């Protein structure tokens, strides 16, 4: 009951003309960026981050909420109409979605995607409303050892478990941890890797890092591929932008099953929604084989419904993990954590006590944002698709200018501009050789927490390392980590053996 009263108070704060405008702006910006291949919600939030310093915290955060889910809504449009998913989380839904489009059912595929994203996001957000405060209360029992174990779990899960190559994942994790050490040591006050440059005494700005990795690096990568032939063409979307009763009835079980897959993965530091979306896709495909007239391979509506619901459900509970634990479970969540810190707020157990009205207003804005996104996407998806016709030189040149001006406006430092260029080139190299970016962001965000927790735990125990595994919570986290590593290794070995058999 307390949660409902707090949520109603949040709706009261959000339901003002100016705040509703920010929700709509965030939804529009997120969808527009999400439609463009290779970008997605993480880049949208990163580009928006340096432009919100003049806004009050509530306005900025509810705009971020619109961008957060808007990017996921937009990701699928390019995948369905062009077979080029805007982000990796939209790959599974694009398999059958593009087949539906080629069969003349593009409007129905887009409607299935939009309603599935809405269903998964709404149900997951409802769970966050009721369980995030409880989770935050449980997290108050966390001490330095528990926070260090949580950070280690996030590091290894996002680098060694999720990445295709554990070596590449751990290498990028090391890069992130190295960047996190730049600046003044919190304990001793000593300078670390600043080379006497005063602008580096406070470390590398998270704004510079996120914009460089997610925006400038992608721009340079796309520029390096200009002139290469592309065999993908945009399929026009004409017809009724809604589902018939029979189509809705067929998709409904898949939406619910997809939501069930996505909800638990949102609180696991696994780097995104790729795993639950493919699990949902695989489940629907297995169930389809038992039907008298299997539809997979011909444009199965359930093959779109399940993955789309799973992706947004994961995003919804990821927001809960971010608010209650201060734990970013994806690259987008890591950028959102930086947005909170920009306004002097630290997500975690005490956030609901210290900034309760702001948090409940943010949760209320999630509901409003998803309703706005459903209204924007059902009838107007074909209009969003026209963004794919913008010539890449103009589009990415504009992104570059916006990124540089945004960083300069937020810091006013030429050193940060040079860092932006250097980190952008590093991100290009990582993108070129298929190194994951998420571990870098997670390491930079959680690195200081891991370091301070480790030092505090050692100081409190007279440097006894056993204190790091002395409580049920830390033991459970490390057991789960070992299980995740073993499961990932077995899965990858099976996949490799299957490829060898095919060859």
TrEMBL record:
Q: Which InterPro entries match?
A: DUF112_TM
Superkingdom field = Bacteria
Which keywords does the record carry? Membrane, Transmembrane, Transmembrane helix
According to UniProt, the name of this protein is: DUF112 domain-containing protein
Q: Which Pfam families match?
A: TctA
User: Whose protein is this, by species?
Assistant: Microlunatus phosphovorus (strain ATCC 700054 / DSM 10555 / JCM 9379 / NBRC 101784 / NCIMB 13414 / VKM Ac-1990 / NM-1)
PANTHER family (UniProt xref)? TRICARBOXYLIC TRANSPORT PROTEIN
Q: Where are the transmembrane segments?
A: 20-49, 61-82, 109-135, 147-163, 169-188, 200-223, 321-340, 360-381, 393-415, 435-454, 466-490
Q: Where is the DUF112 domain?
A: 20-441
């Amino acid at each position: 009951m307390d949660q409902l009263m707090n949520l109603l108070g949040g709706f009261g704060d959000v339901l003002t003309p100016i705040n509703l405008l920010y929700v709509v702006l965030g939804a529009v910006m997120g969808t527009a960026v999400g439609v463009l291949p290779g970008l997605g919600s993480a880049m949208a939030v990163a580009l928006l981050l340096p432009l919100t310093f003049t806004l009050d915290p509530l306005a900025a955060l509810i705009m971020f909420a619109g961008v957060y889910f808007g990017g996921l809504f937009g990701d699928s449009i390019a995948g369905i109409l062009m077979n080029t998913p805007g982000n990796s989380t939209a790959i599974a839904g694009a398999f059958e979605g593009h087949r539906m489009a080629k069969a003349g059912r593009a409007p129905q595929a887009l409607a299935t995607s939009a309603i599935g994203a809405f269903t998964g996001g709404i149900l997951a957000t409802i769970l966050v409303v009721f369980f995030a405060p409880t989770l935050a209360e449980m997290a108050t029992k966390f001490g330095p050892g528990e926070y260090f174990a949580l950070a280690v779990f996030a590091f290894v899960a996002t680098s060694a478990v999720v990445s295709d190559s554990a070596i590449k994942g751990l290498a990028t994790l090391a890069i992130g941890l190295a960047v996190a050490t730049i600046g003044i040591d919190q304990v001793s006050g000593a300078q670390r890797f600043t080379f006497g440059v005063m602008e580096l005494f406070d470390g590398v700005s998270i704004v510079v890092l996120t914009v460089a990795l997610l925006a400038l690096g992608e721009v340079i990568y796309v520029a390096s591929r200009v002139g290469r032939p592309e065999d993908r063409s945009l399929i026009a979307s004409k017809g009724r932008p809604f589902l018939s009763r029979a189509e809705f009835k067929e998709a409904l079980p898949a939406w619910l099953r997809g939501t069930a897959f996505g909800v638990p993965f949102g609180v696991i530091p696994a780097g995104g929604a790729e795993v639950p979306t493919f699990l949902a896709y695989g489940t629907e495909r297995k169930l389809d084989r038992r039907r008298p007239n299997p539809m997979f391979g011909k444009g199965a509506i359930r093959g779109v419904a399940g993955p789309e619901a799973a992706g947004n459900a994961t995003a919804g509970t990821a927001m809960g993990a971010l608010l209650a634990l201060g734990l970013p479970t994806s690259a987008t969540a890591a950028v959102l954590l930086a947005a909170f810190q920009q306004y002097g707020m630290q997500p975690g157990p005490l956030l609901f006590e210290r900034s309760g009205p702001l948090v409940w207003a943010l949760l209320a804005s999630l509901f409003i944002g998803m309703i706005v996104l459903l209204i924007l996407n059902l009838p107007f998806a074909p209009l969003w698709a026209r963004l794919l016709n913008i010539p890449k030189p103009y589009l990415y040149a504009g992104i570059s200018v916006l990124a540089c001006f945004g960083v300069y406006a937020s810091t006013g430092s030429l050193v940060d501009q040079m860092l932006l260029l250097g980190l952008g080139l590093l991100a290009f190299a990582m993108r070129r050789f298929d190194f994951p970016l998420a571990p870098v962001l997670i390491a930079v965000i959680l690195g200081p927490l891991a370091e301070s927790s480790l030092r505090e735990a050692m100081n409190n125990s007279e440097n006894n390392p056993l204190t790091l595994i002395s409580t049920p919570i830390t033991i459970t986290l490390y057991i789960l980590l070992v299980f995740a590593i073993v499961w990932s290794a077995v899965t990858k070995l099976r996949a490799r053996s299957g490829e060898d058999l095919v060859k």
